Amino acid sequence: MITNTSTLTEMKLNNEQEALMIQTMKVEHTKLCNQMAQLDELLLRLENKINRLDDCMNFTPSIQASA
Predict the structure, then answer these.
(1) What span, in angstroms and rounded, lies between the C-alpha atoms of 21 and 55?
(2) What is the band of 57 on the pLDDT scale with cuts at 50, 70, 90?
(3) How far apart (Å, rounded) are the C-alpha atoms in residues 35 and 65?
(4) What dihedral do alpha carbons 36, 38, 40, 44 form, nearest 10°?
(5) What would the pLDDT profile of 14-55 be if each residue is shown by its tens digit?
(6) Which of UniProt's keywords are assigned here (predicted)?
(7) Model pTM score
(8) Cα gap 34→37, rounded to integer Å
(9) Half-sphere exposure in the Cβ direction for 61 (13 Å, CA)
(10) Which of 9, 42, 43, 65 is most open to solvent, judged by the fewest CB atoms within 10 Å of its CB?
(11) 22 closest CA partner among 8, 14, 6
């Protein structure tokens, strides 16, 4: 069976486009993973700050000590 040269060229072009799309998706996936890690760290820092604020705002021990 003889395959037309233009068909082979088109198949090669399609494969190259798919490979480029896959590579782009991998790069974007890596970027998203990095951004998620940064968000996780920011959330952890925020949680720590909120916990410290909660500790500062907890007046129960002071009230109990003065009673």
Answers:
(1) 50
(2) confident
(3) 46
(4) -170
(5) 999 999 999 999 999 999 999 999 999 999 999 999 999 988
(6) Coiled coil
(7) 0.64
(8) 5
(9) 5
(10) 65
(11) 14
Cα-Cα-Cα-Cα torsion 47, 49, 50, 52, nearest 10 degrees, comes to 120
Q: Is the pLDDT of residue 1 over 90?
A: no
Tokens of 44: 């952890």
Structure-block tokens of residue 15: 């494969």
